[in-house]
Sequence to fold (276 residues):
Amino acid sequence: MFKLVDFIKRNSHVFLFILLEVLALLLVSRNSYYQGARIISWSNSIAGSYFNSVSSVTGYFGLKSENDRLAAENAKLRAQLEESYISYTDTEFEVNDTVYRQRYAYTEASVIKNSWNKDDNYIMINKGVRQGVKVDQAVMSPQGIVGVVVNTTENFSTIMPVLHSDSRNSVKVKRTNTNGTLQWEGGDFRYASVVDIPTTHKLFKGDTIITSGLANDFPEGIMVGFVEELSEIKGSGFYDVKIRLATDFNKLDHVYIIDNRFKEEQEELMSATSEE
Fold:
């Protein structure tokens, strides 16, 4: 309290000056219409800038809930895409009846822990068994491929992203349908490698790499990345391909867990076939 009084005493001339300026402005505004209008316009401009700043700040803090809402809405829309369904055509009495059954369903989730600068990286999300997440389900971002679920608890799951030394994903060149395997050898999180693409299939810088759909996890056609560099491995008949990943793992905040509703049936069929 004493410090406040001392502060006011030491700066009394400043406070007096401000008071006199305010009084002068009031007198001018009352006695001159033009000057009054200018002062009101100036004060409105100041107030408008202030409230605009406040609105920007409050709007920023409201972005998380808005992003969550948009992510959930995108998951529903993605589940309605044509590639999320499988088509059956049954012919009976010369009448073709085509029925569509949904093959892939999508669940949105938020990333709560993420690493991208190690040899073996992992991602944690805020969805688990209680929300229908299962081990081996594929995971993508709005930009493209992310990885595969490897562990779950009641409310959380961990994902092995493509940025892991053990990660292998079936991909293909969109332009030629040539199949290959996506892998990561460490280093820059922006890049990965595609192996097993034969040199008999022409490949060019800038070619688009997408998921092949040959595995039982990712649907066909999910964005993987773009060819950045390529060269022929002497004596092998294959390319050495470096791609720029479509997903920015350094900025990953929302993902979609992909549920292949026919996966169990497919795996049972493959198991039975291999035993024959």
User: Anything to note?
Assistant: The longest strand covers residues 104-114. The mean pLDDT is 78. The radius of gyration is 30 Å.
